[in-house]
Specification:
By secondary structure, the chain is α+β, with helices and mostly antiparallel strands. Helices cover about 55% and strands about 10% of the residues. It has a 6-stranded antiparallel beta sheet, with helices on both faces. Strand 1 and strand 2 form a beta hairpin. Helix 1 runs parallel beside helix 12 and helix 6 runs antiparallel to helix 7. The longest helix has 24 residues. It starts with 15 loop residues before the first helix and ends with a helix. Pfam families: HDOD. This is HDOD domain-containing protein.
Length: about 525
């Protein structure tokens, strides 16, 4: 990460605000961050396929995938008797769509700023943003407005102005802090004098340059001074929640002894309009402190600045830990050693974890079939180290098998081209479907196999070197198939225990389809 160029003269940049904005707009990492954040926000309103789209986005970033899996496997979300979470699909089901989405946004923000030289200040402001986001999500669950989940997003970015100033002009940040502490001045007043605008306004300008949706930016504007009115519009409610969440996060992180008095003051201002009382506030604080700690831990952020919170809190279990049936942790596919083909050497453990995940999802009453399909597909994709995987289902209107869900490299482009007639030539796919035969090919260049590959397949995936085809057949009627491939041959093959787990995954999905 670069730092502002001192060659900029006062004539070119009239104020610290303009100098900082110019540098932020020139910084190569930040526009990319803006695009990524805008993409995650857009996924929120993407409709039926939002879970799949979020999973695709996370899987496209190895670092983000690892952090979400680490969060899913922390004490709060996984008891000592629970199986390790090894797929993003399972993480979304376990933590909830909005929790994973908000965590992904926070992780994107932290990854861009956590390596600043002025670690202490930047970390402090990032933790405040994380804490505010958790508070916003709690408020969203209590909200009475449609699409209230956006509260967690606006709460996360309420503090982005402070984060940016601490990251890119630490001297200015410290001068503002000193004036606030020594001159009994509010941070907004000190920032206006030295920066040229408030932290909030500076954050709004930065987010505008990242092309973040206006609904989010408008929700960051300051609240009017004096008594607040109960919000009638969702926009007004979001503004109040963002301000409340950021203020509460600041108090929670404060080392001052008068935190109780500050909580009371906060309740007097926001209690009536946001329908809060002391018990609700206490419940939110208790939950948010531990969730913030777990989220920060998954991002390698220290929370020593979070005042009054024990370093670790043991899980509340009635049975002593030594008597619980333990399950060993599975090394995630992203960290596992691999064969030359790309297949993880611990494929069996990963497949077994996937079978357990599917079993738990089937036992839940509120699972969706589309989410289960994605979970099975992702399990096969990650456990066996494929580069592209898809499930095709029969489309009665066109009498073709059409790719419905896909993961992996260039998944969208390959998904569009992956379709073939229900009745066709005796190629690899037709033979697998008609015979209900699971096919695992180590080398697609073998002469006996090459002549079975249809022209559309050779054109779409010319570099595939090994693959798997799993037909989905119910009462002797083909309804679709799984397909996955690698760009390397798979000389290691598929042992019997792995084959049994692959067939179990397929059977679980067929049972779910038959159930409804």
């Amino acid at each position: 990460m670069k730092y502002p160029n001192p060659a900029y003269s006062a004539a070119q940049l009239e104020s610290p605000r303009e100098r900082l904005l110019k540098f932020i707009n020139d910084e190569s990492d930040l526009p990319t961050l803006g695009v990524a954040i805008a993409k995650v926000v857009e996924i929120t309103s993407s409709g039926e396929d939002s879970v799949a789209r979020l999973a695709h986005f996370i899987l496209s970033d190895v670092g983000l995938t690892q952090k979400i899996l680490r969060l899913s496997n922390t004490v709060q979300y996984r008891t000592s008797a629970g199986a390790a979470v090894t797929t993003i699909s399972r993480a979304i089901f376990l933590l909830g769509f909005n929790m994973v989405k908000d965590s992904a946004l926070a992780m994107l923000l932290v990854d861009c700023f956590k390596d600043m030289a002025q670690v202490s200040s930047v970390r402090k402001e990032l933790v405040r943003s994380l804490c505010a986001s958790m508070i916003g999500r709690e408020m969203a669950q209590r909200g009475r407005f449609q699409d209230s989940e956006e509260a967690a997003v606006v709460s996360l970015f309420k503090n982005v102005g402070r984060v940016l100033v601490a990251s890119f002009d630490h001297d200015l940040y410290m001068r503002i802090q000193q004036i606030t502490e020594t001159a009994d001045s509010r941070p907004e007043e000190a920032a206006t004098v030295l920066l040229g605008c408030s932290f909030e306004r500076f954050g709004e300008m930065a987010l505008q340059s990242w092309k973040i949706p206006d609904t989010i930016i408008q929700s960051l504007t300051p609240l009017p001074v004096g008594e607040l009115r109960k919000p009638v519009l969702r926009h007004d409610w979001l503004k109040q929640v963002a301000s409340f969440s950021d203020t509460l996060a600041g108090i929670t992180m404060s080392a001052h002894a008068d935190r109780k008095e500050q909580y009371e003051k906060l309740l007097r201002r926001f209690g009536n309009v946001l329908e809060l009382d002391r018990n609700i506030l206490s419940e939110i604080i208790q939950k948010v402190e531990e969730e913030t700690r777990q989220l920060a831990k998954s991002m390698d952020l220290s929370l020593h600045d979070l005042a009054g919170v024990p370093a670790e809190q043991a899980p509340l279990l009635e049975v002593p830990l030594e008597f619980l049936l333990q399950t060993h942790d599975v090394v995630p596919a992203q960290q596992a050693a691999r064969y030359a083909s790309g297949k993880p050497v611990n494929a069996r453990d990963l497949l077994l974890a996937g079978v357990q995940d599917v079993t738990q999802m089937l036992a839940a009453e509120d699972y969706r079939l589309n989410d289960l399909i994605l979970l099975v597909l992702e399990t096969l994709y990650t456990s066996l180290g494929f580069r592209f995987a898809t499930i095709c289902l029969r489309d009665r209107s066109s009498e073709r098998f059409v790719s419905r869900v896909a993961v992996g490299e260039q998944y969208a482009e390959r998904q569009r081209g992956f379709h073939f007639p229900v009745k066709g030539e005796a190629d690899l796919f037709q033979l697998s479907l008609s015979n209900n035969a699971d096919v695992m090919i180590a080398d697609l260049s073998a002469p006996k196999i090459r002549h079975l590959l249809p022209p559309w397949y050779l054109q779409l995936l010319p570099d595939a070197r090994s693959c798997i085809v799993l037909p989905l057949v119910i009462q002797k009627k083909p309804i679709g198939l799984f397909y996955a491939d690698r760009i390397n041959t798979a000389e290691e093959g598929v042992p019997q225990d792995e084959t049994a787990l692959i067939k179990t995954l397929k059977s679980q999905l067929l049972a779910a389809i038959m159930r409804g």
